[in-house]
Amino acid sequence: MQLNSFDEWSPLREVVVGSARNYVSHSRELSFDLFFHDNIAHDNPSRSEWYYPRLSARSGSGAGRVPIKQRYVEELNEDLEGIAETLRSLSVNVLRPMDVDADTAEVRTPAWAASVVPPLNVRDNTLIVGDEIIETAPMIRSRYFETQLLKPVFQEYFRRGARWTVMPRPMMTDASFDLSYVRSSTAGGPTEPIDDPQPSAYDVGFEMMFDGAQCLRLGRDIVANISTANHALACDWLERHLEGRFRVHRVHQLSDSHIDSMVLALRPGTLLVRSREVAEKLPEPLRGWDMIVAPAPESNNFPAYEDDDLVLTSPFIDLNVLSTAPDTVLVNDACPELMRTLEKHSFTVVPVRHRHRRLFGGGFHCFTLDTVRDGGPEDYLG
User: Cβ–Cβ contacts within 10 Å for residue 107, how many?
Assistant: First the structure.
């Protein structure tokens, strides 16, 4: 099939589903702690004061490897296979990235080294806009070369006529990161301090860093979440690159990074949102769309974890659904409240198992990259 993906809801024909094979550890270093800051630092009812381990609880300074129990990885891979099989049953062609080789322990540049992670959340480092693949500027060092594992998929789309672009790659020294968001954000409680950046011979100042999951695609319109100077620089690049083809609308600090943890478009005129307050930051035309507020989980539908397990997402991770058609949505089967809510709004809900979403930082939308949908460059915002 030829690359064609303009929105989040039109009938899905082809999709990449991520891989977690040979997932071994997280690297606790500056870029990781910045990316997951809101969820590492805030609101944990199950652990005395906080939702997640305190940043200050890590031993020493700099990078620290946090092992991941392999039974979680095995169960995650089972669930990923279940997601892929469910999509196939809905007549969607499923593609997979290359796996990280078990002997590849880390990624390294002249400026830093970090443990490697597999191409699991494939939505993050790639933005599909119509007939173009854009590899975005990574935000986490351990994911710097992640899109290389998608190269066979991208090459095939290129052979079939797709455009293929790579956003400028950042040096990613400590000085590259804008720390203002984490130093000023107070949502959910006091902000844990981030270590002062260390100087490097490769410092160039703030650089563009941006994930595809910061964008909500609405035909010829793209809503982009901007929380730091890194995001703003990347959005400048995106606006110039797409000028005349797409309109980019900036929203500010809707979240620390990804927009799909706060709002998803399920069909033209309908949004799934974390709260009514989300609407206040959206572009004016979107504020008139119907808002389905994701219900807070009432049942205990999350696995119990041990104190040394690093939890990376909030209980609202299951808002991260995947639409396969304007009336059909893949939802975690552990979320009866959300399924009932969507059914009341005339959606067909396809329940799929996904157990360890809070350990691996992603839901169905994060784990997938929709490359072929039926929709085109429609004007939904006027």
Answer: 19
Torsion 22-24-29-32 (CA) sign: positive
Determine the topology of domain 12-373 in CATH: L-arginine/glycine Amidinotransferase; Chain A (3.75.10)
Q: Coil, strand, or helix at residue 23?
A: coil
* Identity of the amino acid at 100: V
Burial class of residue 49 (count of CB atoms within 10 Å of its CB; 0-12, 13-18, 19+): exposed
Enumerate residues 6+ apart whose C-beta is below 8 A from 128.
3, 5, 134, 212, 217, 369, 370, 371
Residue for token pair 């991520």: 18
Domain spans in the chain, listed from the N-terminal domain onward: 12-373
pLDDT, position 41:
58
d(CA 357, CA 309): 13
Choose the weakest-confidence range: 137-141, 210-214, 256-260. 256-260
Q: What pLDDT band is residue 382 in, cutting at 50, 70 and 90? A: confident
Query: What integer pLDDT is reported at residue 190 of this predicted model?
Result: 39
What are the φ/ψ torsions at residue 54 (nearest 5 degrees)?
-70, 145
Q: What is the Rg, in whole angstroms, of the alpha carbon atoms belonging to the chain?
A: 19
pLDDT in tens, 219-229: 999 999 999 99
- Quickly list DSSP for 275-289: -GGGGGGS-HHHHTS
Q: What is the pLDDT of residues 239-261, one digit of tens each?
A: 999 999 999 999 999 888 899 98
Q: How far apart are CA 105 and CA 102, in angstroms?
A: 7
